């Protein structure tokens, strides 16, 4: 309808890897050129696409979150695909949420806005339930039936990485010439290199973080600041040579799959394999063309992929999400299971999902097994209400970072006293060191976001902050860890 009226439309996707498939879908449906805009384009490519939008070309734009700022002239429709995804929140300045910008732009252009997801964010679904948004339900899949979800576990006295049921499921897909998606939300080989003698783990010198083992290139890497060094075989604390690698990452799972299934063709998709230009697109095209039996990767492969030959999705290490300390952890774990289920059996009626967990009785997993988002929403909202967490309240985080810990932490005690009783202030909390800077934080919590923002803006000039201290104010932070 937008194109028929000579207007523009924007479709946002959360990951660069999803743009090729979305572009292909749009071109097949509408048979026209599509403007693509994301951060992996070089400056010249981005400039040319920007100019096309500025000229008012009547077309569809497909892009990641930065596309929301393109200079549209006649915008009639905005679609946020997988609107729940955390990638829509910018985690560096300016700390905007694509959804908020989309709402404002839709108002300005008198455009329609569609927030699409099988697992909407709680903020969005709460507003839709109250009638602030129009709620449109799609109870049935476009084609085929929703896959069955199974919870399996390895035996406590066994050291095997994969449960027997998962090994059998993989073998069945290999025998039937079908494809598998296997998700573990951690890149690298293992997240911990620990000394068996003194029990100390190898830490990043710049951050209060452990170094991850990247066995393929014999490196230890920090996933926070990018620091890396050669893989060591002697403990720097006690000199012992008995170092052990603990935990799982995509590289270790790939190694185990290759050991169990020597003829299996595996494509690994994580930040390490998609750094090169068009890395996402090349891997997905190979998999779609049937050049691999298994696509192994981090959570980027759980989002929106449409691979007809995939009949089985496998998720490892879901318990870490369920036990996370952030108030959204359970919501994110539920979404991960349901979204992964959405990748299996899209053109058939025999899709299956296997989730390896020791917490199969967790309420989130029980609701996910029945694909019952609304019951999960009502249950989880009870806990949100008890903790006065979003969407019942709004949050603003105030983070200071400095070369010295006291310069980051001490001013927050004074700042805390400046807010009146209408705003709940949590902290200050010591967040430890990141990139050689010490960080501390206050959390503001309240029901009136305008009042909270005005208070911060009014009080900010009075804060006793030294010149070399950085201040980060994040309105409605996506996570608190």
Can you give a write-up of this model?
The protein is an alpha/beta fold. The protein is built from 13 helices and 20 strands. It has helices at about 20-30, 45-55, 100-110, 120-130, 165-175, 250-260, 280-290, 320, 330-340, 365-370, 375-385, 405-420, 450-460; strands at about 10, 35, 60-65, 75-80, 110-115, 150, 180-185, 190-195, 210-215, 220, 230, 245, 265-270, 295, 310-315, 350-355, 395-400, 425-435, 435-445, 470-475. The strands form five sheets. The protein has a six-stranded parallel beta sheet with strand order 6-16-15-7-14-13, sandwiched between helices. Strands 2-3-1-4-5 form a five-stranded parallel beta sheet, sandwiched between helices. Strands 18-19-17-20 form a four-stranded antiparallel beta sheet, with helices on one face. The mean pLDDT is about 90.
Outline of the structure:
With 481 residues, the chain is of the alpha/beta class.
Q: What ranges have pLDDT less than 50 throughout 5 or more consecutive residues?
A: none
Question: Going across the major beta sheet, what is the strand order?
Answer: 6-16-15-7-14-13
Structural class: alpha/beta
CA radius of gyration is 24 Å
Number of helices: 13
| Mean residue pLDDT | 91
Per the principal axes of the C-alpha atoms, what is the gross shape? globular
User: Can you count the beta strands?
Assistant: 20
